[in-house]
Amino acid sequence: MAVTRETARAWIARHRPLAGKLLFEIVIVFIGVTAAFAMEGIRRDREDVRYRESMIAALLPTLTNVIEHNERMAREMTAKLGAFDRDIAAGKHPALPVYREGGGRGGERPPTRAWDGIVSTGAAKALSPELFFELSLFYTRQESVGERYIRYNDFTESRVLALGADPAPLYDAAGRLKPEFAAHIDRLRDIMAVNDSLTAQAVALRGKLQAFLKQ
Question: How far apart are the C-alpha atoms of 114 and 64, rounded to whole Å?
Fold first, then answer.
């Protein structure tokens, strides 16, 4: 049977209430799904913010750890170098001042933390570009000090400690410290100077992070 215009209009008229109801339900479902996605997005954004803040906050104890370690290291180095310099000034031939991480009981370098891990999580994106750069520079320098300490400690173990308790082999016939051992003392002084600089930088960065987390 052919469908005439009148037949089509009659069919539409009969089903218009149902079509309107279906359209209304579709709109309601669409709005509900859209709202659910929006709420889920807001929830995830909030979780991301909390996660990033917690990761950034985790840097604070890391910096405190560095500060405390470096201060202990500076006290020990200063005492040993001071005693050595006084003995040299008095014409004595003392043993070399030696610094070893953990007292030689483990730990081959000053402590460093996983800044790369913080970056890889994306948490560092919450930082300002200036603060991100300062932290990156700090942890790079901290890692560099660790490498310098390893070279210092390798010489300590292979050339200094291997001599035993008698300091006589450290000096030449004229009673002067041999060049390689004098250079070893200079390495220790350099490490101490960089160590002090990093301590000051860590204190400043800790204050900036605390201010950032209070924003």
Answer: 14
- CA separation (Å) from 73 to 21, 68, 113, 132? 78, 9, 17, 27
The answer to whether 61 and 202 are in contact (CB under 8 A) is: no
pLDDT digits (tens, 9 = 90+) for 121-159: 666 677 788 888 888 888 888 888 888 999 999 999 999
Q: What is the pLDDT of residues 172-191, one digit of tens each?
A: 999 999 999 999 999 999 99
Q: Domain extents for the chain?
A: 1-57, 59-213
In which residue are the tokens 């005439």 written?
A: 4
